[in-house]
Amino acid sequence: MDSMTEEEMADPKLIGGSRIQRIFKGLGCSPEEVRELLKYHKTMQTAFKGFKGGKFNIQKMMKKKIGM
Predict the structure, then answer these.
(1) What letter would DSSP give residue 2?
(2) How far apart (Å, rounded) are the C-alpha atoms in residues 3 and 63?
(3) Half-sphere exposure of 41 (CA within 13 A, CB side)
(4) pLDDT in tens, 23-40
(5) Whole-structure pTM value
(6) 8 A C-beta contact, residue 3 and residue 26
């Protein structure tokens, strides 16, 4: 996260190939690890949106995840 700009932290959608290269070089990790972090961030953002406004429904979320 220290290798990311404020703009990138505020909106991870801005992070493309060249930015991923800069970030993973600064972190000393692989590009796959940076992509995994971005994927996790997106998943958590989606989950928190479900909590917002009392619309959270665990059964609905589980059905989506396991394809029931």
Answers:
(1) T
(2) 37
(3) 14
(4) 888 888 999 998 998 899
(5) 0.60
(6) yes
User: Which residues neighbour 19 within 8 Å (Cβ) at sequence distance 6 or greater?
Assistant: 8
CA–CA distance, 28 with 19 (Å, rounded to integer):
14
> Which residue, 15, 44, 10, is CA-closest to 23?
15
* AA identity, residue 5: T
Q: Please report which residue ranges of the chain form alpha helices under DSSP H.
A: 6-10, 17-27, 31-51, 58-66
Contact 50, 61 (CB under 8 A): yes
Per-residue confidence at 57, pLDDT binned at 50, 70, 90? low
